[in-house]
Amino acid sequence: MVLLVLTVACTTSAGQGWRDLGGPFSPTGGPGAVSLAAVVAGRPWLAVGSQATGSGERPRAWSSLDGREWRSDPVLPTTLDGPSDCLVAVAQLGGLAVAAGQYASAKEGNFRPTVWWRDPTGAWHDVDAPRELFGGERAGGVVGVAASPAGFIVVGGWTDADNQPDVGVWRSVDARAWSRVDGEAALSPSRGEVVVATGATGAPAAFVVVGDSLSATANHGVAWSSRDGLHWSRSAVDGAAVLHGVTSTRAGVVAVGLDESGAAATWRSVDGRYWSPAGRLPSGPGTASLTGSASDAEWEVLVGGIVAGHPRLWTYSPDHWRPLALPSGLTGASGTTKVVVARAGTTTIVGADRASGAVVWVK
């Protein structure tokens, strides 16, 4: 089994010099384990996740000016679902930042999304909006957040008026006022088909979402792109059996998933509409699950994942995948359920989720 986390990076093969970040990512207000879901490089660096409690989960967030010294951000929920949210994705644009979380509703049997925004002091607030806006009983969870010059989108699942599972897209230009994108045929399945979004990114001139088309006869990867977040087009990703994540570089976007032989593979596109193969990861057959973040690198991608129960890192540049050395605390480690990576300039973050809690390194 291969679990992959995708991010853009300028990369190096050195395996030394990692420092355990420890403190800021430790449990607070109780002993429950901390889970790290996503990290985005930038000014500031941001990370989101959750912490287990006696009754469920509570949202957690962190920030850093340089990626090396981190602090725990205040998370101030006011909505009904906010206190029990697991934050799963984060994006930023200029001085604005958005995170998305979800709460597993025992009553409705689905994942209810919540959207969060970060104020100038670094505190996070959940958007106070009618529950029906983000889905309520129609919600299908959240898979990604993306930022582009057009604003922000949150992507997940949505059940339409015909009781069909659509790709759910919500859009905002200021991180606080949101609307759901309705009536876009490209986001809805055709007869006999189910479409599932699995990742989103903000490309230089567009939003790009990737996912899967599922039917009784075939499964294949698909992509959706939009310049404004409101009007969408759909395209095939030839050779992809499933796609599980996408991230942006200065030159375009890179998606990772499984090819038709079942191997972990990659594709790239300049605009999110026309795709070409970018090679296989040297990992063997498996499944893939990815998230992404953006950087200024050009066609240089860092991937973290789990192969046969053990964490792995790979880099892509140019046109070739090769393995990278892990922090010594991850080398040969078992029991890791997720690896999260991010890089900007010469600073790299690697986070690993374990049953005992998240461990985070910086170099």
Descriptive notes:
This protein is an all-beta fold. The chain has one domain (31-286): Neuraminidase (6 Propeller). 0% of the residues lie in helices and 56% in strands. The protein is built from no helices and 29 strands. The chain has strands at 2-8, 19-20, 34-40, 45-53, 56-64, 70-72, 75-76, 86-93, 96-105, 110-118, 124-126, 139-148, 151-159, 165-172, 179-180, 193-203, 206-215, 219-226, 233-236, 240-248, 253-259, 263-269, 275-285, 301-307, 310-316, 321-324, 336-344, 347-354, 359-362. The strands form 7 sheets. The chain has a 5-stranded mixed sheet with strand order 7-11-10-9-8, with no helix packed on it. Strands 1-24-25-26 form a 4-stranded antiparallel sheet, with no helix packed on it. β18 (219-226) and β19 form a beta hairpin. The radius of gyration is 19 Å and the shape is globular. The two termini are 27 Å apart.
Summarize the structure in short.
The chain is an all-beta fold.
Molecular shape? globular
Low-confidence stretches: 8-15, 285-296
User: Number of helical segments?
Assistant: 0
Here the CATH topology equals Neuraminidase
CATH top level label: Mainly Beta
Gyration radius, to the nearest Å? Answer: 19 Å
Largest sheet: 5 strands, mixed
- Say how many strands there are: 29
What average pLDDT do the residues reach?
A: 84
- Helix percentage: under 10%
CATH architecture term = 6 Propeller
SSE series = EEEEEEEEEEEEEEEEEEEEEEEEEEEEE
Count of domain modules = 1
Distance between the termini: 27 Å
